[in-house]
Amino acid sequence: MTSVQAPLEKADAFGPLKRFVSRRASWIPVFAALALLILIFIAGQAYFGNFLTPRVISALLLDNAYLFILAVGMTFVILTGGIDLSVGAVMAFTGMFGASLLRDGVPSGIVVPVMLLLGAAFGLAIGVLVQYFDVQPFIASLAAMFAARGLAFMVSLDSIKVETPEILWLQSTRIQGAPGSFYITPTGIIALLVVLVAALVLAYTRFGRTIYAIGGNEQSARLMGLPVVRSKLLAYVVSGVCAGLAGVVFTAYTGASYPLNGMGTELDTIAAVVIGGTLLLGGSGFVVGSMIGVFVYGTIKTAISFMGADQSWTRISVGLLLLLFVVVQRIIVARSDRR
């Protein structure tokens, strides 16, 4: 009798853990991304000796603030089962248009809202094509990408330097304690606030719950009486607004705008969101995970810079990680379907 009870007791000991994993399966990729980030930090510190310094950690947020913002908007879209390939081009166009207005003397208090509205207009256009004309999100956002990039070149073929103090202040100002300690810039604060607001919206609002429901099963969401059409449109509008805001932040970061800014950024954004645990099929994922995914991307890029290697290795590394996390997602989805 005792020999039979021992295995049962052992199984019961792991029962709570198994129940937690089954109920929180959507968090597994997020924890995996967090574990990967910690592993990269440890390996970088062991190899370089000066990797985990306040300057390097602060620069991760400073250099990738625009990518955090883009990843937030992309998370909303991918959660619905869609995709937005236009974010990099929209960021470039809004940056070029805003820089041209600033050059002509238009106040920044007018320019920034205009940039956000332009981003929202692109997002709304994609949403309308997807929802009302039954165009695949890939095609609709690809068309918007070409349109935005073309408009960026129409504004100017050359770089436009930004000298407006209010815009440059967003990047040049460093909020720091003791010398040599961690610091943050207004662009970093904006990025963190966008992440926080988006996380709260997805977790605690009807709009957020509808986004998850659409990605899980759009037909079921309609039968439940949820505002599917409005929510899908808003998801793309959120992505567009984030692209416009990223245009502001990136313009402040570089001090200028160029039509070729953001080339390939949409792929970096999608990779960061997927590495952070958001399912490409939709219905599962978290903004916090996307933030971790951006940190993973930025840390890999920094480590390769420390090594003095070509930045093409960043693409290779992120591509391999993306493949790995997509495979992990497929395994999780398959297990969920079996259950």
Low-confidence stretches: none
Spatially, the strands of the biggest sheet line up as: 1-4
The biggest beta sheet reads: 2 strands, antiparallel
> How much helix is in the residues?
over 70%
Could you tell me the strand content as a percent range? under 5%
At the first level of CATH, the class is Mainly Alpha
Mean pLDDT: 89
* Second CATH tier, the architecture: Orthogonal Bundle
CA-based shape: globular
Q: Order of SSEs, N→C?
A: HHHHHHHHEHEEHHHHEHHH
DSSP E strands, number? 4
Index terms:
339 residues, two-stranded antiparallel sheet, 16 helices, ABC transporter involved in vitamin B12 uptake, BtuC, single chain, 2% strand, mainly alpha, globular
Task: Please describe what this structure looks like.
- The protein has about 350 residues and is mainly alpha-helical.
- It has a single domain, classed as Orthogonal Bundle (ABC transporter involved in vitamin B12 uptake, BtuC).
- Helix content is about 75%, strand content about 0%.
- The chain has helices at about 1-15, 15-25, 30-50, 55-65, 65-80, 85-105, 110-130, 135-155, 165-170, 185-205, 205-215, 220-225, 230-255, 265-275, 285-305, 310-339, and strands spanning about 160, 175, 185, 255.
- The strands form 2 sheets. Strands 1-4 form a two-stranded antiparallel sheet. A two-stranded antiparallel ribbon has the order 2-3.
- Strand 2 (about 175) and strand 3 (about 185) form a beta hairpin.
- Helix 4 packs across helix 15 (about 285-305), helix 5 packs across helix 14 (about 265-275) and helix 6 packs parallel to helix 8 (about 135-155).
- It holds the Pfam family BPD_transp_2.
- It is a multi-pass membrane protein.
- InterPro entries: ABC_transp_permease.
- Keywords: Cell membrane, Membrane, Transmembrane, Transmembrane helix.
- It is found in: Cell membrane.
